[in-house]
Amino acid sequence: xxxxxxxxxxxxxxxxxxxxxxxxxxxxxxEKTQSxxxxxxxxxxxxxxxxxxxxxxxxxxxQNASGPVNAGVIxxxxxxxxxxxxxxGIFDGIKRIHPDSKLYGFLGGPGGLVDHKYMEITAEYLxxxxxxxxxxxxxxxxxxxxxxxQFDKGLxxxxxxxxxxxxxxxxxxxxxxxxxxxxYYKANNAGVQVIGCPKTIDGDLKNEMIETSFGFDTATKVxxxxxxxxxxxxxSAKKYWHFIKLMGRSASHIGLECALKTQPNVCLISxxxxxxxxxxxxxxxxxxxxxxxxxxxxxxxxxALIPEGLIEFIPEMKVLIGELNDLLAExxxxxxxxxxxxxxEERREFVAGKLSDASAAxxxxxxxxxxxxxxxxxxxxxxxxxxxxxxxxxxxxMVKVRLKEMxxxxxxxxxxxxxxxxxxxxxxxAAPSNFDADYCYSLGVTASVLIGQGKTGYMxxxxxxxxxxxxxxxxxxxxxxxxxxxxRHGHMKPVIQKALVELDGAPFRYFAENRxxxxxxxxxxxxxxxxxxxxxxxxxxPTMTLELEKNK
Length: 552
Fold this sequence. Notes:
four-stranded parallel β-sheet, nine-stranded mixed β-sheet, Rossmann fold
């Protein structure tokens, strides 16, 4: 296998660890915990793992003699930079407990546990993956561990391999499932611990004890480099407005962090749109006003950042999508009538005639291509595939129409040409930044200590992340502490509460205070590529989001 010079150098990189994880560990138990909401219901559903204390690791513990510990690991959900280092940390950690400990990786995600597909991860095999991006070491998948039949099937192979602990590396849904699995195995005295690790580039798995999910730092640095490149191109050519859609369907953390790093002319935050109940007309008018303002100064160019999930946060669009889902439900009379029509315009009017007045007006207002997408592209359940809507194109096209109106009114005298981009997969498998390489390795070692201490139902936690790595605080947080009850697919279920952008938080406040200046002036920042070598001020910095949250 041919590897690049950079990968060769990264293979030599030794991730930095908190002082508490470098030798024998003293475990300090804090106060008992409760869930963020719905305490009685969560306690009822998790009688064996609810109310456990927070755990903090300190230096100076006694090295307890222990026999070999076999552990399993699962990568769940979408890729995020640093996952390989979590596995490396688990491997090195359990080998420190006893050199004969073994680590098994379940292949292709949670489905590998159910289907008994696995491999032993050896030191020789693992060394090729240290400090690399991707999840190709064992693969990932989106199988949900929700049914007792799956739990029992997984337990068969865990017993066969004498695995005493299972580490699930994933986002909020995956860690919710990990907690359900921990409760089930504890209730049935299965003798298998379950530990979670916080992963998602979207950044929506965070709270007081989980300051950030791994991969967010690297992904936003990759996207910000690309945005900076486009900003420089825009400032060089001076003739295009670039509309850039960024990953983040449920929250706008990526968009906000990239805006803080690059200072674009426009950045929409879905949570603000929902809070202010902004309409599509208002959003389009606001962008058009910025375009016109810059054009009045001779600047017929700019950059706008659009979160992937924006459409679902616009109240009127949410209502429209709900009506369309009901109207065109599979097997309905209206769906049959719709399909019987041939022409796109004929179909559009048929649908508009059956919507509420407000939704009909909005539906007719949309560009023809988007209207067609809302009615033609359905998921297996018959619902609109919101993730496929090209929101960046929708807004660009609508701004173009609005500017034509403004030109007739005499309020716009410039030019407007567009370019469209979507940055998503580009950031998921990048080589992890030094921050993510260190953070992920620390999470893995933390998981191994939790295993060694016999804990279950905990998520590995590493905090104080704006300090040097040696001063990070490692420990464990009960997953039930992060849970609440939410309606999913028509049923109330216990889930980890998603963290949305806080509009009263320091990162958003800083953005809000500066965005008018960034809109009027060309204040672009060009972050450049991720730096792996050099002064700590260049190569070890966490996200601006974290910096602002800690310095609030």
